[in-house]
Every structure is written in C-alpha cells, then in structure tokens.
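Q: Hi! Curious about what Trehalose operon repressor looks like structurally. Here's the sequence.
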Amino acid sequence: MKHNKFMKIYENIASQIRDGRIEGGTLLPSENELADSYAASRETIRKALKMLSEDGYIHKVQGKGSIVLDVSKFDFPISGLVSFKELSKKMGQRARTFVEELEKIKPNHDLSDKMKLGKDELFWKISRVREIDGERIILDKDFLLEKYVPSLTKEICQDSIYEYLEGELGLTISFAKKEITIEEPSKEDHRYLDLEGFHNIVVVKNYVYLDDASIIQYTESRHRPDKFRFVDFARRK
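A: Let's find out. The predicted structure is below.
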C-alpha cells in the first residue's frame, strides 16, 4: 500500500510539472506541507521526491528545498560530442530508445559524397527512435564505417554505440563537424515520429572523426522542434 502511495504522489507531481501546472524554476512546497496535502508520512514524501529528482523533474538544493526543472525542453550541447545515453541519464525512466533499423549497406552516391569515401566502402546503417515522456520526438540516423566497426548488434545500438566504440573497440573519437538546418519532415520522419501539427524538423548533421583525423561516422539527428533547445557557451576572444 505504501509503495503505491509514493508512486501515486510521484505521478501526480510529475504530471503537473509535465503539463506546466507547476512551472520550471519554482520551489515545491516543503516536505511537511506535501505530507499534509497528500495525507502521507514524510518518509513517503521523501521517496516520491527522490524519484522525481532521479528522473530529472526536480533539483534538490540543501537548505532551500526542491526546485522544479523545465522539462518542456531538453538541452542539447551544440559544441559537445555527447551520446543520447549520457544526456538521458538525468531523465531516468522518461527516455527510451527503439532500434528501428540495423543493416550493412553499400553507400549511395550522396553518402559517398558526404564522407568523401570510395564507393566500395561498407557501412552500418542504424535508425533509432528516441521517446521521451511517451512521445517519439527524435530520429537518429547513423552511418558507421564497417572497416572500423566489424560487428554491431541491436543490443549495442539500444544502449550506447559510443560506449562500445571507445570501451570495447578502443577507438578514440576526437572531434566532429556539425551542421544545423531546419527542414520539412520526410516520409521517414512522419513514419517514425509523433509529428501531428508540426511542419518543420530540426536536423543536426554530424561528421565524426577519430584522433588520426579519419572519418568514422556520419549522423543525422532529426528533432521535433518544440522539445529541443540547443545550447552553447560562447566567450568573446
């Protein structure tokens, strides 16, 4: 019964944060006040708050209380090379990955051109959908050179490709060139993403290089525009 109680409190507060009834930047009531309003023990409230913190809904500040985070948008660093797994850690159970496609292909003219490679190079083509709070809002399309990555499984793609490349294969991913464009959604975008009412998509193209400056990967990360905020820190030299 107690278990159900803290889950119900967690869900109630989380849904209010998701739909904007509790705004980002505001303080939640104190543990005592929450205990009173939910007719629950402080221990039950603490459990619910711990879970809200782990899933990226609130940030607990010593001596101040629980600050509500802005969950309507997710920060994607423009200049960093970060995997979705690393970004989604603070979202806990809110983020899920679905591997829609994993196959070895010969590149078409467009891909050979983009990566300045010969037509006989073999690639892995991986399509992954990222779901956050039950909505499918990112389509990640990856093309990895087979000569660097001889084998790849659905399980690796579901988890983290970068973790596999660096941890298992010992490759050093060094830098990337990025392009950001606004485009009309493709048929593929409509097939995989929840795009009803949206007429644009934010496309982040990544050309990823190893430490010897050889290209290993081309990525297109296709984002629904309402959910993403691309952030960077700039200093005038």
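A: A fun detail: The chain has a mean pLDDT of 87.
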